[in-house]
């Protein structure tokens, strides 16, 4: 199974959730696009959290600036096209996106949602409870459904908010799979502890 971890916004914890799911399922990890922070990339972070036997596949696109991929590519004098992404030959794979679903990859209108469709992956949507997150979460669920992409469920980073989560589930029909008890210091031990509660959900 290929699971694409996407988010309702940037900085909602996609990398942490991707690491937790890779740890729980013993899947490989792949970040197709790294935009900025090349010296401490998401792949480097996840490598620190996973067991040595789990493979971290090389990014297809590496960009210098922490911007939307289309703009970061422009500054690097590059152009991103969907045919540049070669799916690793690994069936059990956690794929982490860059930003949200409608983040543009190029000036032609290709976005992260188009990459998910091309890779033929199921998705897990990462959310976080903040003012405005109901709207962002429901819009993301709608975009996935409108594009015929299976959304396996939502994982909430941080403290629960039952009122928000109940209305999200009621309107979208997408289940809340669980919560990550967020901490500013992410360690391998934290990832492994959090992964225990998600292992049974995906088995």
What does this entry look like structurally?
The protein is an alpha/beta fold. The strands form 2 sheets. The protein has a 7-stranded parallel beta sheet with strand order 4-2-6-1-7-8-9, with helices on both faces. Helices cover 37% and strands 22% of the residues. It has one domain (2-202): Rossmann fold (3-Layer(aba) Sandwich). The chain is globular. Helix 5 links the parallel strand 7 (122-128) and strand 8 (151-157).
Short account of what is shown:
With 203 residues, the chain is of the alpha/beta class. The chain has a single domain, classed as P-loop containing nucleotide triphosphate hydrolases (Rossmann fold).
Oligomeric description of these chains: single chain
Question: What is the name of the CATH topology?
Answer: Rossmann fold
> Strand arrangement, largest sheet?
4-2-6-1-7-8-9
Count of alpha/pi helices: 7
Question: So, CATH architecture?
Answer: 3-Layer(aba) Sandwich
Strand content: 15-25%
Order of helices and strands: EHEEHEEHEHEHEHEH
Task: Round the Cα radius of gyration to an integer and report it.
Answer: 16 Å
Summary keywords:
203 residues, alpha/beta, Rossmann fold, seven-stranded parallel sheet, two-stranded parallel ribbon, 7 helices, 9 strands, 37% helix, globular
